[in-house]
Amino acid sequence: MKKHLLVILLSTSALISTGAVAADLSFPHLETTGRGEVVVKPDMAAFSVDVVATKPTASEAKQAADQAVTKFIERLTKAGVERKNINSANISLSAQYRYPKDKAPEFTGFKATRNVVVTVYKLENLNTYLDDALGDGINQINNITLKVKDQKKYQEEARQAAIANAKEVAASLAKGFGDKVEGVWQIDYNTNDRPMPYGMRSAPIMYAADANSAVNQSYSDNNIVISDSVNVIFKLAK
């Protein structure tokens, strides 16, 4: 009776998929969710910009956007960014209209939009690259995402911390109810649920050209959190 009550109390915190499986188990068991995280300093980043050009014809709009992207890439490579770390392969074209009140829509031209994503492996140069982005035809810096080069290493550390946490919680719960964990019955691990390092919005730093050193240091001073979790069904000793 004691073990059966333990199952009822703990199963309420389980995920639906795991809980459905646990409901069919006839032996004493408990479920836990282990969580782990690693806090690290970023050593790389990625940012993206939108290049937008509006012209009377589609070909003119595309040409203007292409020229702005070419100039941007030239500025970046001159500043030290390798061409392979600049992705600028996509473009979209759309007709633009003005909608006067009580009148038919009026065609105003074509808008060409190209998105450029830049990966930065020297974080100390990030603000210089952002300054290079603020050129003709570039309308905005969309976002800045701080990252770490050795993502797999820190993800594994977070995963192992989650596993240790699941074991620790299971042992503590079993002990509290006068029982003991006998072994693992099922592990439910969903890699898509792991949060990635947080991104930083670009607005606060877009016009920081006069304070490169301080701004670059502000990126290095930020921490990013890499998390992981695992759901486990443990068997209890009979």
From TrEMBL:
InterPro entries noted in UniProt: 26kDa_periplasmic_antigen, SIMPL/DUF541
PANTHER family: PERIPLASMIC IMMUNOGENIC PROTEIN, SLR1258 PROTEIN
The protein, known as: Oxidative stress defense protein
Pfam families: SIMPL
Cleavable signal peptide: 1-22
UniProt keyword list: Signal
